[in-house]
Q: What sequence folds into this?
């Protein structure tokens, strides 16, 4: 390749061991999702720009796609997806007649956002979503089910791979909107968008925005922020909101919905969720429950798993398909851990056994041994060159391959140096050596 | 979603059961590749246009990507990858210092080509590649290893899922180029490109192109086509090429390389490969062995698995990383089979058991039962509504979920109607019902 190779900022790529970490995490997510009856779906990477537009702050980050030699007038205006929810809503609308509702799907795909590349922000990254979508209606208990499925997945990431604990922060847009309306604010969406910046710019600056940009008086702005201060591990938030003395029908609805989610989640995952009225979410399509998730000890990662309820995203005018879902920012979670050495794999290849080659004439015998080991599920490669054995052992060592098999009928654990006679039709590696061990610290 | 939903031609999307078929095929490919010591890698979806350009016919099919609100002058010119080989070569060049060679990797990712959408052509599709790349050199025996790994994968697709048999057609560019040069042709690449169209337009038209566009005389054009007629299941091709009376050093080299591949592959997979000198491949970067693969009974699919040896694709001027690889056109293979009903799954969801709900008050008990079944790896969902049981059974039926669990402590096989008392901590579904059964006809 003659053109100079340049790293592109914002497009992370893993080395082989990093990819093994990512695969293990994705496998575990998939397994958990499928155990809960979520089926995999993938959508095309592009959508008409009209589908991608009008969903809030994200609009300005869309990537347009066009054939280099396109005829500008005949080609549809397409853009790359920036999340898995909007394309899924389009998919549901397009294929509704062939789908069974409620539909439970997971979707693990890359998304693209033209953000300014910086710490924790990527232009291409992997999201792992679960969603449940109903036809015209969707029961409220799914708002509690979604975080429980995800907390079970994080529980396994913690138990099996060592990931720190997570806490899911839950709020409700109806609650916030009702509260703002109860304060006499006509456009609550503007308040939500600014309150969403609390973590980034702090409460003083948010208050200033509310006054300067939305024209709220200082007291009303302060009242908005008082709601955002409420955070309780149980349904105590209801009383604290009531104590603020605001009343509105939508507020009552939101309080009841959030109380139900917190109560159910606490019953199954004590300590896994908190009601946190600071949570707003930047996307416009959420209509009720909203979720964010914090990784213990890693506030710098921001929310690693977010989502919410969307009652009107998927609609064709006659029917609507309300949904609730949540999305793990897999790259946002793992790329910094891998880069910092907090996530690693015990080897950089799937191979458990390297079959050494005495000389090129005996390569067929080595291939035969490898085939017999593979037939019993043991990942095996044959040494690429009939070098002296020391060099072949180093080939294994550099990759972390634990065992080297010799044509003499012996297998060596190159970590301990122990070498024993073994039968390729019967020998088993220790269970822990069958595949690379992955640790997240 | 207000904008009208329009299907985009050339961007296939599966319904849930189709995706289950695809997942099973991808899982089986991955498992086979990892058993052979290939590690997973993914590259970013975009490359600088300079990296994507200059690789042959594909150039005009590149999709350019640009932020909608980009500043035209400061943004790199990027395009979506059209295969997994060119980005992998770039990756190798970029990260060479951190990789161990020979590097064995597989890569299962989407690629994009702005082809005119038509039968069997897609604008977005999944490719599953394996490649072995060396530092400055790569032993010839890998040219025989690559088809054997892939034939093992296809053997499993055949044995386990019922896919028809495949035959791999192997040729060698040195052989063809040497032969053309031996005929006195100065630009063999032009001949290769036109011979590559043999299957599409037939030998008469190819001969006409060779005469009209390249200025060959009729006899030379006919001699080019005589080479392309040679197809043997063994090394018989060597003698048949010799009989054409052309000689060139590069021809000898190509004959020896191809003979070695065919001989080795025949030893391990009798009948799996044929030497077929019609095979040319459209991409410019191949330098030796080239592969194509035919699915028995499905000539309309074209080659479902193609690749070859590329000695100079990855190079930074000082070093080069020669490689050999092959790529399954997963979408090209499966999308038509799924669309025609030749590929199906026994159910459209991963779920094996639906736990019925007596009334909303007993939902926690149903959630508890579901959790105990999942703890033993049984995919389970809880009925979304406490409808009458007939309706809940229909919920399962429509999705193909084989078992419904009742709060009374009984489980019903809804296919046979058999209902038995069962313990959620001990009951097991038959092994064949644990996950959806997939068949490719």
A:
């Amino acid at each position: 390749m003659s053109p100079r190779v340049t790293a592109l900022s914002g497009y992370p790529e893993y080395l082989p061991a990093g990819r093994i970490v990512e695969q293990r995490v994705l496998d575990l997510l998939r397994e958990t999702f499928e155990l809960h009856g979520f089926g995999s779906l993938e959508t095309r990477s592009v959508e008409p720009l009209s589908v991608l537009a009008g969903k809030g702050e994200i609009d300005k980050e869309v990537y347009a796609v066009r054939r280099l030699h396109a005829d500008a007038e005949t080609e549809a205006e397409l853009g790359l997806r920036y999340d898995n929810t909007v394309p899924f809503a389009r998919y549901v609308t397009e294929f509704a007649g062939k789908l069974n509702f409620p539909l439970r799907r997971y979707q693990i795909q890359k998304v693209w956002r033209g953000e300014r590349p910086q710490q924790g922000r990527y232009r291409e990254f992997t999201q792992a979503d679960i969603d449940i979508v109903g036809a015209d209606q969707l029961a409220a208990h799914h708002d509690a089910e979604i975080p429980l499925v995800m907390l079970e997945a994080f529980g396994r990431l913690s138990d099996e791979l060592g990931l720190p604990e997570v806490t899911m922060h839950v709020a409700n847009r109806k609650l916030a909107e009702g509260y703002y309306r109860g304060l006499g604010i006509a456009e609550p969406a503007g308040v939500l968008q600014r309150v969403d910046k609390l973590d980034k710019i702090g409460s003083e600056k948010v208050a200033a925005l509310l006054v300067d940009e939305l024209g709220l008086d200082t007291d009303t702005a302060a009242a908005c922020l008082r709601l955002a201060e409420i955070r309780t591990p149980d349904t105590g938030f209801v009383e604290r909101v009531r104590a603020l003395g605001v009343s509105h029908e939508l507020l009552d609805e939101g309080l009841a919905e959030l109380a139900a989610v917190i109560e159910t989640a606490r019953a199954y995952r004590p300590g896994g969720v908190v009601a946190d009225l600071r949570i707003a979410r930047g996307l416009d399509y959420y209509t009720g429950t909203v979720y964010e998730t914090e990784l213990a000890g890693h506030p710098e990662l921001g929310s690693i798993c977010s989502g919410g309820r969307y009652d009107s995203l998927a609609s064709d005018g006659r029917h609507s398909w309300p949904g609730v879902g949540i999305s793990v920012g897999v790259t946002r979670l793992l790329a910094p851990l891998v880069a910092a050495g907090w996530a690693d794999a015990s080897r950089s290849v799937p191979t458990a056994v390297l079959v050494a080659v005495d000389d090129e004439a005996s390569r067929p015998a080595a291939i035969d041994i490898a085939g017999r080991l593979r037939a019993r599920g043991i990942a095996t490669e044959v040494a690429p060159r009939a070098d002296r054995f020391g060099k072949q052992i180093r080939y294994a060592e550099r990759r972390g391959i634990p065992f080297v098999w010799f044509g003499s009928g012996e297998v060596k654990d190159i970590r301990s140096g122990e070498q024993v006679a073994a039968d390729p039709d019967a020998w088993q590696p220790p269970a822990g050596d069958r595949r690379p061990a992955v640790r997240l610290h």
Notes: Chain B touches chain A through 96 residues (CB under 8 Å).
